[in-house]
Design a protein that fits this description.
Helices cover 42% and strands 13% of the residues. By secondary structure, it is of the alpha/beta class. It has one domain: TIM Barrel (Alpha-Beta Barrel). Bound molecules: L-rhamnitol and zinc ion.
């Protein structure tokens, strides 16, 4: 059966539940996914070609063909984006600056170092998001940045944060769009600290300095990302969940970032969205996949991914929850990793958009939990795949595994030719 006929069959099946599949597709294709640039080169960036990744995060594997220049990274990103349906943004880290081979310190970066990204994104129709880089630097080598007790080091990182905020504000202005800037710092202790309070106090003050004088929210919004632990920071992370939840609740206009890998292993971010949105205006997600630890595996179409999407769409929160991806796998084709993860995010959104939510909510309110469970389970074998295929086809991207051959050809012709 061809994709169109299969879709028609699916449309009818969902219509019997009161679900409009055309409307679901329309809804999902307007929800942007912010795809992280750092999957393309194992979080190395272009600041220092010899640099190593620090900060307690790790990309493992040695698959050939990693992007080594801005041009290569852009080409790879484009390739991946061409195989993913829906609206796309690129999330840039400060170390992906276009420095023309010149050394520019982190506290001295300016908009001009990102102007070529803006030009490129405009041409391609991508939005841009931004991240200061508080790791992979000599001044973060002892594990601390914004909470550092040495005033000079702390100031250096505060200035980096301010420089990034200003760059992001300008990017937003240039694009006529809202950039989301995410602040994540690695600060934490390998072993048990004594004065947790003092480190956290300094951190709050540092952020206040960075965000003082923030520009128009139309062009940039700042988000802060919590974490449970990192490699080498097992005993205490200064920027914990409670720290940031308290921070955003008391500072107007700052978003909370929830990374799916940054909590206890049985704790899920899908359950947090509905609570946080009662008290904070907006959330940024870092959709990732922890396997036994915060391993940043490629996002797969698993229950938690579906639950995240369901929580966003059930509440009609698509304007308040910004969806970003955050994984880095160097053990498989990196462009394919992007495609798999980003397609799965899109898939999960479509899956969620096809839920007869109002019907389920009514059953819940009546106390008919039997029907609620029965329907939720039956929905799992509805012809979702046919709607997904049709969505891909109408978006002009390959349906099913049709994209894999393109990636294999790209690997043969482009990636393997890189030295
Ligand atoms: C680290 C955080 C952070 C980084 C990126 C590269 O644990 O998840 O978001 O992954 O900034
Ligand atoms: Zn993250």
């Amino acid at each position: 059966m061809d994709i169109k006929s299969a879709y028609e069959y699916a449309r009818e099946a969902y219509a019997r539940l009161g679900v409009d599949t055309d409307a679901a597709i329309k809804r999902v294709k307007n929800i942007p996914i912010s795809i992280h640039c750092w999957q393309g080169d194992d979080v190395r960036g272009f600041e220092n070609p010899e640099g190593v990744l620090t900060g307690g995060i790790q990309a493992t594997g040695d698959y050939p063909g990693r992007a080594r220049t801005i041009e290569q990274l852009r080409a790879d990103f484009d390739k991946a984006a061409s195989l993913v349906p829906g609206k796309k943004r690129i999330s840039l880290h400060a170390i992906y600056l276009d420095n023309h081979g010149e050394k520019v310190e982190r506290d001295e970066i300016e908009y001009k170092h990102f102007a070529s990204w803006v030009k490129w994104a405009k041409e391609k129709g991508y939005g841009i998001d931004f991240n200061p880089t508080f790791f992979s630097h000599p001044k973060s080598s002892d594990g601390f940045t914004l909470s550092h007790p040495d005033q000079k080091i702390r100031k250096f990182w505060i200035n980096h944060g301010i420089a990034c905020r200003k760059i992001a504000e300008r990017i937003g202005e240039e694009l006529g769009d809202t950039v989301i800037t995410n602040y994540w710092i690695p600060d934490g202790f390998k072993d048990i600290p004594v004065d947790r309070h003092a480190w956290r106090e300094r951190l709050a003050e540092a952020y206040d300095e960075i965000f003082a004088g923030a520009g128009d929210k139309k062009f940039n919004r700042n988000a802060v990302e919590s974490k449970l632990f990192g490699i080498g920071a097992e005993s205490c992370t200064i920027g914990s969940h409670e720290f940031y939840l308290g921070y955003v609740a008391t500072r107007k206009g700052i978003l909370l970032t929830l990374d799916s890998g940054h909590f206890h292993p049985t704790e899920v971010i899908s359950d947090k969205i509905s609570s946080i949105l009662l008290f904070c205006d907006e959330i940024l997600l870092h959709v990732s996949r922890p396997v036994r630890w915060d391993s940043d595996h490629v996002v797969i179409f698993d229950d938690e991914l579906k639950n995240i999407a369901l929580e966003i769409l059930r509440g009609g929160f698509e304007d308040r929850v910004h969806i970003g991806l955050d994984f880095f796998d160097a053990s498989i084709n990196r462009v394919a990793a992007w495609v798999i993860g980003a397609r799965n995010m899109q898939k999960a959104l479509l899956y969620a958009a096809l839920e007869p939510t109002e019907k389920l909510k009514a059953l819940e309110l009546e106390g008919d939990y039997t029907s609620r469970l029965a329907l939720m389970e039956e929905l799992k074998s509805y012809p979702f795949g046919a709607v997904w295929d049709w969505y891909c086809e109408t978006e002009g991207v390959p349906a099913r595994d049709g994209w894999l051959a393109e990636i294999k050809a790209y690997e043969r012709d482009v990636l393997l030719a890189r030295k």
